[in-house]
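Re: weekly structure request thread

Next one in the queue (124 aa):
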Amino acid sequence: VQLQASGGGLVQAGGSLRLSCAASGRTFSTYGWFRQAPGKEREFVAGIRWSGSTTRYTDSVKGRFTISRDNAKKTVYLQMNSLKPEDTAVYYCAADSRNLIFSSMGSKNEYDYWGQGTLVTVSS
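Done, posted below.
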């Protein structure tokens, strides 16, 4: 089982990036995106359940980021708009075979599989 994240890069403040995470080996019910800035703990960014109708976002990205998924391609996306320097971090995708309840989607301990991370740098 592998999760392959891509799409990171350097962008100016106010710009956009789209991250992708492709799963191989199995199908997952819940996907999450987390990020870790230098010297900080890994934090939840967004999560999505199987149907795509249930999503959750951390407050700091609401209205700017959108998580989506394509189950046929076993891929989850994170569209990031209006990027800010404080969004700079390594972004990790995570997945779990369970359809996590809303309150659990934000916990990194609930996800069994992790991708390798992709670096997003937002310049001011």
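The chain has a mean pLDDT of 96. The chain is about 0% helix and 50% strand.
Next request, please.
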